[in-house]
């Protein structure tokens, strides 16, 4: 009668054949169809643990090279709970800053969040390929500005905020609280931003009445347009019902609402402005931005403009008659709707323009490049309006 022996019994017979009968290990290995190393392993386990050492063990490896360390996974989960808006990329960046070695991967962090049910895979929004992302090549080339509401005071008043950021660096150049979005209040914050950071080449806004009067029943120049014209700033407008054109400022509004405005009531307008300034300062200098390869907006603003963000763009030549422009890669600058060629060899240089009535003087440092006559502004605006339509 044949009896099937268990794995443990066969290993026990092999061990007895060696230690009791003195059979060579090579012969025992050939008899049971295993390697010499396997027989040595059975002998070692039997000596250490007895018959229980011959039982099958788990084949799971002692360590897995791509498995996240439990301590890091606990840190990831707890950090995510404290900061629900942080995604895998931000968590990986913060883990590196915290000194975790080796740092976790984005896919590993995503799986950890999924296991902890802190992320819903079905809620991920796919990027719409119809929308083309764009970005200016340097700081101070373009500002995006808009008005957002939702700031609530203790007396029940709902205030507005004029927001503005630099297109290249996402540096917030303006975040001014105002009771109502009137033309005077908006332009007061615009003037403060110009004094603090200098004059950009262009400003992009929507078609709100506080920004432009070009689409009213009667064409009028509002105060915002006038400030842009007198400072040589090209005021660009989005197409109607096209919020994606100013996508950077809209994305900033999302962070502003979720991290600063939601669930908060401020005592009064000055305290709200003070707290908003502190939050914006942290946003500019401490918060890494995913679109900037996790650099801070302030670091890219300084690198892109070649100056400190708190200093004026025109340090030596100041006053209402002076403006500053950065020469594009084509050698062109734009002043008051007028394009002037400064030469391709000056691409990236910042030149100063002196406005003397109908005359423009362009200076590169101490060198006077050229003197040109300003075009008729009414005719230029008519041509631009005709192109836009």
Distance between the termini: 99 Å
Write the H/E string, N to C: HHHHHHEEEHEHEHHHEEEEEEH
Poorly predicted runs of 5 or more residues = 308-315
**Morphology call:** elongated
Indicate the percent of residues in helices.
Answer: 25-40%
User: How many domains would you count in the coordinates?
Assistant: 4
Strand residues, percent: 15-25%
Based on secondary structure, the structural category is alpha+beta
Q: Identify the quaternary structure here.
A: single chain
CATH top level of the largest domain? Answer: Alpha Beta
Treating each run of at least 4 consecutive H or I residues as one helix, how many helices? 12
Give the CATH architecture of the largest domain.
2-Layer Sandwich
CATH superfamily of the largest domain: Ribonuclease H-like superfamily/Ribonuclease H
Task: Kindly provide the radius of gyration, computed on alpha-carbon positions and rounded to a whole number of angstroms.
Answer: 34 Å
CATH topology-level name of the largest domain: Nucleotidyltransferase, domain 5
- Strands side by side in the biggest sheet: 3-2-1-4-5
Major pleated sheet: 5 strands, mixed
Query: What is the overall pLDDT average?
Result: 84
Find the count of extended strands (DSSP E, 2+ residues).
11
């Amino acid at each position: 009668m044949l009896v099937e022996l268990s794995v443990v019994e066969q290993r026990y017979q092999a061990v007895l054949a060696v230690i009791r009968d003195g059979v060579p290990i090579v012969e025992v290995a050939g008899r049971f169809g295993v390697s010499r190393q396997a027989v040595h392993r059975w002998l070692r386990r039997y000596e250490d643990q007895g018959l229980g050492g011959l039982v099958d063990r788990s084949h799971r490896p002692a360590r897995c090279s791509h498995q996240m360390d439990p301590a890091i996974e606990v840190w990831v989960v707890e950090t995510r709970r404290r900061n629900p808006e942080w995604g895998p990329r931000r968590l990986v960046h913060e883990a590196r800053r915290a000194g975790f070695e080796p740092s976790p991967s984005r896919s590993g962090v995503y799986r950890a969040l999924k296991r902890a049910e802190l992320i819903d895979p079905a809620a991920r929004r796919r990027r719409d390929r119809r929308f083309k992302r764009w970005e200016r090549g340097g700081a101070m080339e373009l500002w995006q500005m808009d008005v957002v509401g939702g700031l609530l005071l203790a007396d029940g008043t709902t205030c507005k905020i004029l927001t503005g950021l630099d297109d290249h660096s996402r540096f917030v150049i303006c975040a001014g609280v105002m009771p109502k979005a009137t033309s005077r209040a908006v332009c007061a914050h615009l003037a403060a931003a110009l004094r603090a950071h200098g004059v950009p080449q262009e400003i992009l806004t929507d078609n709100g009445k506080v920004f432009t009067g070009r689409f009213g029943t009667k064409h009028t120049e509002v105060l915002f347009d006038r400030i842009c014209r007198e400072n040589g700033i090209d005021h660009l407008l989005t197409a109607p019902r096209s919020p994606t054109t100013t996508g950077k400022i809209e994305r900033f509004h999302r962070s502003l609402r979720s991290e600063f405005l939601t669930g908060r009531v401020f005592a009064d307008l000055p305290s709200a402005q003070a707290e908003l300034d502190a939050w914006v300062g942290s946003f500019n200098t401490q918060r890494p931005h995913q679109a900037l390869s996790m650099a801070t907006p302030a670091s890219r603003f300084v690198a892109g403009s070649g100056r400190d963000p708190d200093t004026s763009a025109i340090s030596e030549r100041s006053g209402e008659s002076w403006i500053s422009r950065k020469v594009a890669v084509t050698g062109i600058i734009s002043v008051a709707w007028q394009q002037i060629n400064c030469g391709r060899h000056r691409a990236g240089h910042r030149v100063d323009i002196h406005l003397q009535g109908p005359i423009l003087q362009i200076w590169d440092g101490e060198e006077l490049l050229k003197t040109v006559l300003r075009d008729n502004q009414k005719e230029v605006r008519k041509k631009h309006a005709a192109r836009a339509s």
